[in-house]
Amino acid sequence: MNICLNDKIFRIISDVVTAEGVAAYVTGGWVRDCLLKRDHPGKDIDIVVIGSGIDIAEKTAYRIDPGINVSVFKNFGTAMFRWKEYEIEFVGARKESYDRGSRKPVVEDGTLEDDQKRRDFTINAMAVSLGKDSFGRFLDPFNGTEDLKNKIIRTPLEPGMTFSDDPLRMLRAVRFATQLGFSIDETTFLSISENAGRMRIVSQERIIAEINKIMMCEKPSEGFILLERSGLLGIIFPELDNLKGIEKKGGKAHKDNFLHSLEVLDNISQRTDNLWLRWAALLHDIAKPLTKKYTPGTGWSFHGHEFKGSKMIPDIFRKLKLPLNENMKYVQKLVDLHLRPIALSQEEITDSAIRRLLFEAGDDIDDLMLLCEADITSKNEKRKNQHLENFGVVRQKLREIEEKDALRNFQPPVDGEEIIRTFGIRPGKEVGIIKNAIREAILDGIIPNEHDAARNLMIEKGKELGLSPAEPVI
Ligand code: CTP
Fold first, then answer.
1. Distance (Å) from CA 147 to ligand 1 centroid
2. Whose CB has fewer CB within 10 Å in the chain, the N or C terminal residue?
3. Exposure pattern of 194-227 as b/e (b: 16+ CB <10 Å)?
């Protein structure tokens, strides 16, 4: 198994542990991804030491460069440092048994196999020896290689035990299955369904990190389908779970909005690595259950779901512990605007409607158009092509208007300062009225987006408000 140990760092660790007379192994994601010939994202290396992980971490770091800073987590018996592109974590092998009465784990030093047993999945529990005499020896007591070959996620122990050690592992099972294109072993999956409720004791920060990893997969829908089937979704993301199902009345059924949202998410994921655009896709119809209405004769409607949805975003972001910053505002904006290009494409497109869309979407207009195109999930090829064609026309119009009017990041050609100076007034409601009138006139195409035209309108509007210029008008 020496192929996994080509990097120089393993020789250095080998020298240190041999000199110290302790055994150490590389394990976890490094070994798994090496066997999968997958580029390990971030180059994390997990080292398990049969002895003190902290001691070996400190000695290895010192050997490389006495200036390296080692972070020690005494309570967990772990230590880590960064070197070059690596993040190397050392842990002492532990044996964990549960005192059933107190549910507090009793942790003692253990053997390599004790440590492997305590890991999440067989494919993450393989180890390669770093000792000089056994360098490269492969230890795989739970047959992780076989599971890698068959593309199976399976716990080393009875799954209930593994999951009670850390319930987040249920979500990790779904994440690894989605990331690697694996299936979850039947018994392991059954146990997730039985223990889903235990996710409630896991911190939201750890949960959202896994959800975001699912979001960044090639086909994130696979993860969300597994979450739904296992019952995890209702616990970690009830608003999304709420979207599922079809209702039929008077012979009319609406589509399953959960499956539709996932399809839009997959569509957008083929086009972008932007996590927040992916979130916007997942959440674009989130308010459909709240706005759903059946009208006899007309059928189902979801009036205002885009507006209501955008209002729901801050609450969802807060609960999920997603950032409440400009990324949230971006998602809100896209959810709010996601029907606008469709509405535009279905009517005679006026320049003024295009200008307003450009003004509101600003720099996010291209992302909005991507989202709208991803939102076409009709199975009817003819209808689908018609929509795409219509969007082509909207895109063309957007280009023309942008070239002409430069509205993408609208800056008023006459600002509040100039209005105050010209009329010699104090900041107040008149300034707002005049600024508004200028913006509306530009968006309606009554005046061009230029200073002189805007200044003339300012004077005119000022007169209507009983204001006269305090300085000569040039
Ligand atoms: N691990 C575990 N239980 C957890 C988290 C981690 O048993 N809840 C073990 C697994 O052996 C895992 C290793 O710790 O392989 C490292 O964890 P982590 O860095 O989170 O995952 P990787 O397997 O390295 O994969 P990735 O970097 O893709 O997250």
1. 16
2. C
3. ebbebbeebeeeebbebbebbbbbeebbbbbbbb
Query: Cα–Cα–Cα angle for 133, 139, 144, nearest 5°?
Result: 155
Count CB-CB contacts under 10 A for residue 162: 23
Domain 2-150 class? alpha beta
pLDDT tens for residues 115-159? 999 999 999 999 999 999 999 999 999 999 999 999 999 999 999
Which of 120, 178, 180, 199 gets mutated to test ligand 1 (max ligand atoms within 8 A of its CB)?
Answer: 120
Q: Does residue 100 register a pLDDT over 60?
A: no
Is the CB of 120 inside a 6 Å radius of any atom of ligand 1?
yes
**Residue closest to 254 by CA, chosen among 211, 301, 304:** 301
Question: For residues 54 and 72, is the Cβ–Cβ distance under 8 A?
Answer: yes
**Nearest CA residue ID for atom 7, ligand 1:** 119
In 3D space, the residue among 105, 80, 79 whose CA is nearest the CA of residue 94 turns out to be 105
Q: Of 142-151, 156-165, 201-210, 385-394, give the lowest mean pLDDT range.
A: 385-394
Backbone angles phi, psi at 466, to 5 degrees: 80, 20
Name the residue ranges covered by the structural domains of the chain: 2-150, 416-464
* Model confidence pTM above 0.85: yes
In this prediction, residue 194 carries a pLDDT of 97
Length of the chain: 474
The encoded tokens of residue 29 equal 């994601």
Q: How far is CA 111 from CA 94, 129, 367, in A?
A: 7, 13, 53
**Is 109's pLDDT higher than 90?**
no
Q: Which residues contact 429 (CB under 8 A, 6 or more apart)?
A: none
